Amino acid sequence: MSSIDTARAETPFDHDVVVVGGGPAGCAAGVFTARYGLDTVIFDRGRSSIQRCAYLENYLGFPAGIDVETLYGLLHDHAEEAGCEIGSDLVESLERVDDGEGFLISPQEGEPVTARRVIAATRYDGEYMRGLDDETAMFETHEHDGEEHEHFDKGYAESDGTTPVDGLFVASPYGETGYQASMAAGRGTRVGITVVEDVRREAGYPDAVANYYDWMRREAELDGEWSDRDRWRTYFDDRVPDDHDLEADRLAEIREREIDRRLETYLADDEIERRIERGHERLLEHIDDDLIVEAAREIETERENGGS
């Protein structure tokens, strides 16, 4: 679902968003930014902290648990389906580009790339961010066994992922977020939405209409007054503050684009069925073929015996 504003169609950067880390937090953030239409790249060094887990038994949606390899494959498949590019490389450093807007991202092996925004979604030490801000703000020092150790400050970012560095967001599962995989995915979702809303504000959306959600509804719910486009125009205009500084044409463009986006979230019954079938088919791609064949035989046997 691409809803990126036309004002963002041309950018001096290689990518709109670079995500550092391809675990639950990074992939969740990437899904939301890419689905909005932002050119998103996820750098995954292949050693996400979740891969240290022997078997995951508390990730919602898997009643008997799930092995980390399969979950990791699902996370990456989802991110790529949403439009993300995933690179298996370690980010060694982030630097401000010459004009102070955006970042130069230098990986260990590949060529450096630039991005307007960066989402830090790793649990490793944050050394790649050193130099972007006052080190006393980004890093904290503590003593252990008589020696001083320095670590990235887990409280550096706000709860929505924003930081004192413009364009830098932190989705790492730190502090109150905890270290559970499902909590990390939630943290990534929150930060992904924060980035989208930041893009919308930069494109001129007033704060009152910059908020963003991404969920589908049944077309049958789009009835009565809400089936009338003029009703949506009234709804939008009522939320825009009187002191906005947008030209009338630009405000009208934003309003019509936002109405289009909202209406696109309503799905007809046949489209819902199509998506359900495709969703199930994609899940099958991550299940062992022998198990699928065995389950198919059991189903066929039940049918032959009059079962359901």
TrEMBL record:
InterPro entries, per the entry: FAD/NAD-bd_sf (IPR036188), FAD/NAD-binding_dom (IPR023753), Ferredoxin-NADP_redctase_2 (IPR050097)
Record's keyword annotation contains Nucleotide-binding: no
Flavoprotein in keyword set: yes
Domain FAD/NAD(P)-binding per the UniProt entry, residue ranges: 15-122
GO molecular function: oxidoreductase activity
Keywords linked to the UniProt accession: Flavoprotein, Oxidoreductase
Protein name, per record: FAD-dependent oxidoreductase
